[in-house]
Amino acid sequence: MCPYRLVLEHVTSRWGVLVLIELLERSYRFAELRRAVGRVSEKGVSEKMLAQTLQTLERDGLVHRDAKPVIPPRVDYSLTGLGREAAEQVRALAEWTRQRMADVEQARQAYDEARAPGARAS
After folding, report:
1. Are 94 and 103 in contact (CB under 8 A)?
2. Residue 64 in 3-state DSSP?
3. Residue-wise over 107-118: b if at least 16 C-beta within 10 A, else e?
């Protein structure tokens, strides 16, 4: 797979999108981020999936993991400059989708009606 397609897959994955958009607002601790992502998702993200997503985005240079040597351990996640750029692009696409959802629904309905049994062939 082409390297840029792999990064695009990471950024636009189900959880990647939500993590990036949430981190645009501020840095989060792991549990806080999990709750925040869960609020905007029908089904919350598992700890394992969130950890994998964060590791992938960190490896790609989009997320910074700041582990503080305190007791109990404290780890904060934030966006890097590169991550902020990606997150702004993803947020713009998410906003466009929200604004144009009625048009998408209308197109889906027309498509389904045209292909329903008994529909006239065009």
Report:
1. no
2. strand
3. eeeeeeeeeeee
Which residue(s) pair with 79 in the sheet? 63
- The whole-angstrom separation of Cα 62 and Cα 81 is 7
End-to-end CA distance of the chain: 39
CA–CA separation, 25 vs 33, rounded Å? Answer: 11
Express each pLDDT in 65-110 by its tens digit: 999 989 988 999 999 999 999 999 999 999 999 999 999 999 999 9
Beta strand pairing status for 28-29 and 63-68?
unpaired
> Within a 10 A sphere around the Cβ of 42, how many other Cβ atoms?
5
Q: Mean pLDDT, the chain, as a whole number?
A: 93
The model carries a pTM of 0.86
